[in-house]
Specification:
heterodimer, A: mainly beta, seven-stranded mixed sheet, four-stranded antiparallel sheet, B: about 110 residues, mainly beta, six-stranded mixed sheet, 11 strands, about 0% helix
Chain lengths: ~110, ~110
């Protein structure tokens, strides 16, 4: 069973640009969540999508957005990039009745110069 | 307002000894808690969970204890192995039935050979 796949793994952008990150969940999983990891801050919840609908949203500015497609694949977009957006962006998928375990991808490392 | 706290950013333990990682929480409504382990350049992987109705859950070398009166949980690793060296995160779901999680800031465990 293939795991969660995130692309790209690494990218460098400059301030003011925008970026789109992609996540393919585990087959059959309908929930996709996004987290931002920065040093000292742990994992900060961005948003969760379930069946193409945003079910939960974290405390991030409107520059952070996402969507989910009918095949459960998800994208997140960050517009007008700031230096502080440099982080590891992690996608996690979950599905079915279980303990609520999240299955994470390896992340997309974004560096904003 | 951090609802899940890991107050020790790092911990060093000798191989073969016990590692104890701690986590405190403020919200008594959490249904369950999870521990994740993260190696560099990889996404977090699920380690063990505990329901709020239990006070202990064991899985091999890993045991999680929950003290509801103190709002404290701890992860015990016995015996510790060099391969256990990683960052450990505790997490709790903020909303029942969804996958919006609050994560602690993590504890970096180093097991010395």
């Amino acid at each position: 069973k293939a795991g969660v796949t995130q692309t790209p793994r690494y990218l460098i952008k400059t301030r003011g640009q925008q970026v789109t990150l992609s996540c393919s969940p585990i087959s059959g999983h309908r929930s996709v969540s996004w987290y931002q990891q920065t040093p000292g801050q742990g994992l900060q919840f961005l948003f969760e999508y379930f069946s193409e609908t945003q079910r939960n949203k974290g405390n991030f500015p409107g520059r952070f957005s996402g969507r989910q497609f009918s095949n459960s694949r998800s994208e997140m977009n960050v517009s007008t990039l700031e230096l502080g957006d440099s982080a590891l962006y992690l996608c996690a998928s979950s599905g079915g009745a279980n303990t609520g375990e999240l299955f994470f991808g390896e992340g997309s490392r974004l560096t904003v110069l | 307002d951090q609802q899940v706290k890991q107050n020790s950013p790092s911990l060093s333990v000798q191989e073969g000894r016990i590692s104890i990682l701690n986590c405190d929480y403020t919200n008594s409504m959490f249904d369950y808690f999870l521990w994740y382990k993260k190696y560099p350049a990889e996404g977090p992987t699920f380690l063990i969970s505990i329901s709020s109705i239990k006070d202990k859950n064991e899985d091999g070398r890993f045991t999680v204890f929950l003290n509801k009166s103190a709002k404290h949980l701890s992860l015990h690793i016995v015996p510790s192995q060099p391969g256990d060296s990683a960052v450990y995160f505790c997490a709790a779901p903020t909303t029942s039935g969804t996958y919006k999680y609050i994560f602690g800031t993590g504890t970096r465990l180093k097991v010395l050979a």
